[in-house]
Amino acid sequence: MAATSASPSPVTDPASTTDLRVLVLAGGLSYERDVSLRSGRRVLDALRGAGVEAELRDADVALLPALAADPPDAVVIALHGATGEDGSLRGVLDLCDVPYVGCDARASRLAWDKPSAKAVLREAGIPTPDWVALPHDRFSELGAVAVLDRIVDRLGLPLMVKPAQGGSGLGAAVVRDVAALPAAMVGCFAYDSTALVERYVPGMDVAVSVLDLGDGPQALPAVEIVPRNGVYDYAARYTAGRTTWHAPARLEPQVAAAVAEVALAAHRALGLRDLSRVDLIVDTDGRPHVLEVNVSPGMTETSLLPLAVQAGSLDFGKVLGALVTRAAARRR
To answer: Is 294 a known ligand-binding residue?
Structure first.
């Protein structure tokens, strides 16, 4: 990881807590299971390092009986993909009266569905690239060639094609030539029944992690993402040597401030709490555009939120300790 000199973060380093028992949920059955397990193990180690009693558990048939028999003080959801991000698990935890770190089920459902989230962002005046959401059934019924021609006429080239619901860059592709669009759509439909096709905005890929440790949402330093092949896909995210990160991002101060402001606006517009990661493009004129918002950010050694925590001169374990303390207090 390459790093530039960090400006002071507005978030103060919280004290750790030692009187809670925390359950870290990781694994699941999504395409992102392996990443989730890596996230869960890192969260577990960080919490224990901060003096918090924690254990790791998969989200399987044994979970609900375990919650009923011995409910934890709080849950950290390190599940990626639908299991951890579509709101369903959070709804079940609500039924069990078990508090958890992160947004509630309603906000999670909204952020998980990219077209719905983009519509909310656009209505709030937050910049996001123009897009069209195309279910596979409509794609077939209306004629693939005619639909794709119209998309190119409306949005132009290049385009970004990605699943309407999903993460980790799975099924995503940049399309620079119209001849490559059908294959990109087929690859996307392998991961979701609806494709999100949006105008590709050239510029700098950045991610802004938002934390609320008790004083309201605050943005950590932006992390700049420089994938070796130009596309931040699954391999670029989780394969050593495929990506260089700059934490904080190499942005002029006024651009960095604008990026943080837009990320905070997106976090608030979607009704999120505790933490989120906002993925953006900063175009060649220095203007930020929100691509998507993640309510269960990766926590692996190459994930962006831990890099932002480090760039903000914070202790990862203490941050997690503060988040679980806030979550536990919601039930108390």
So the answer is: yes
